Amino acid sequence: MEHKSPMKEAIEHIFFSNEPISEDNCTVCNQRITDFKNSVSEREYEISGMCQACQDDIFSDIDDDERI
Asked: Fewest CB within 10 angstroms: 3, 12, 49, 52, which?
């Protein structure tokens, strides 16, 4: 069985699942959406539907300034 990185799993889930981006739940972990750290994180949510915790996990090796 192939080991997938968190980024690959998130991308496959977001782009290849039939679940629409909801205004209430994360597309990756399905937890309720709460607050975001900054406008970059809010923008990422608009694109991917990921909550702040999932974004933090997925982008842990990337500085916030690089996520534009």
From this structure: 3
φ, ψ dihedrals at 32, nearest 5° = -65, 135
Q: Is residue 1 part of a domain?
A: no
Q: Which tens digit of pLDDT belongs to each residue from 36-47?
A: 999 999 999 988
49: left (phi over 0), alpha (psi -120 to 50) or beta: left
- C-alpha distances out from residue 17 to 20, 60, 65, Å: 8, 23, 29
What pTM was computed for the model? 0.64
Number of structural domains found in the chain: 1
